[in-house]
Amino acid sequence: MAEGRTRPAWAEVDVSAIRHNIGVLRRLVEPAALCAVVKADAYGHGATAVGAAAIEGGAAGLAVALVDEGVELRESKITAPILVLSDLPPGGAAKAVAGGLTPTLSSVEGVEEMVTAARALGTSHSVHVKLDTGMHRMGADPQQFFDVVAAVMSARELRLEGVWTHLAVADGGTDEDRAFTDLQLDRFDDALARLASADVLPPVRHAANTAGAVAWPRSRYDLVRCGLGIYGELPLGAVSSIFGADPGTVPLRPALSIKAQVVSTRTLRCRRAPLLRAPAPARRALACRHRPARLRRRPAPCHVRLRVRSAHRRPAAPAGRDGDHGPDHRRLRSRLHRVGR
């Protein structure tokens, strides 16, 4: 949307709605904590304002997709934990460490880059490791996951703060969707059990997005990552139904509204329809519909009326007959009659 003083339309973001929604979702998922997802400029709502409101509303931290998004939040004086959900690009580890961001790691190479960056700054840095349980977007596959965790545990410069996964179809209402979400959570639970058997107990385990937080209580673990919900929206279908099933549930409030200044009004006579932009057939239909009943059978006014005749009703004249001017003329004459008014 273009910005400027002369544009009579604008978007408004109600940060009190953000705080309200954070509170509603926090109460729903307790004792799990809530992380507010503010990637992509808080889905167009404004990351710095939404991030500050989310922390005020009780969010335990924020999540972004890119290192630069996290750096922008730090520059706006937000000091809460900020989790980077994507793998770091080349050179991103140094910026993440310098900005006090918590990166997500899913490869041994990523661990080595983080170790180098943390060592250069002389710090010990918290990281999360992501397990791909079936979404196949990012994260370590089950064979690599334990190698990545072992690499983090063996590095003095790193602390394993959390492990997580992402649910692909937690908002789905079909049996197939529910079976796949159960499968993802089973895989995550199996990985956590293997870590526990090796005395590796990450303080923070998380899997749920907004849909998971609402519809899948077993996915809440220690933390939920809510994006859509904090802006006042829920996935359609099963998730909305589950959220509204309890009569005592406080509804979410949409944070974004689009507004426009009224610049002109028109007063029309009764039954008069605005026809300027309607296509010609629609204009004729609307004009007919808004006429008095006694006139509705009359054709809509038109300078030229076209009538189609089937070829079998009037055979073409044989070649050489008077008035026959060749095949093109016969085809045109059989299809169209022009009647002037």
How does this model look, in words?
With 341 residues, the protein is an alpha/beta fold. It folds into two domains: 11-258, Alanine racemase (TIM Barrel), CATH 3.20.20.10; 303-341, no CATH class. Helix content is 38%, strand content 16%. The protein contains twelve helices and twelve strands. It has helices at residues 15-29, 39-43, 47-57, 67-75, 92-98, 108-121, 142-153, 175-197, 210-215, 238-244, 280-289, 327-335, and strands at 9-13, 33-37, 61-64, 82-84, 104-105, 125-130, 158-164, 204-208, 223-226, 256-260, 304-307, 337-340. The strands form three sheets. An eight-stranded parallel sheet has the order 4-3-2-9-8-7-6-5. Strand 5, helix 6 (108-121) and strand 6 form a beta-alpha-beta unit. The protein is globular. The chain starts with 8 loop residues before the first strand and ends with a strand.
| Domain module tally | 2
Shape: globular
Low-confidence stretches: 300-324, 337-341
CATH topological fold name of the largest domain: TIM Barrel
User: Whole-Å distance between the termini?
Assistant: 49 Å
CA radius of gyration is 32 Å
Would you identify the CATH H-level superfamily of the largest domain? Alanine racemase
Estimated share of beta-strand residues = 15-25%
Biggest sheet strand order reads 4-3-2-9-8-7-6-5
Helix content: 25-40%
In CATH's first tier, which class of the largest domain applies? Alpha Beta
Helix and strand element order: EHEHHEHEHEHEHEHEHEHEHEHE
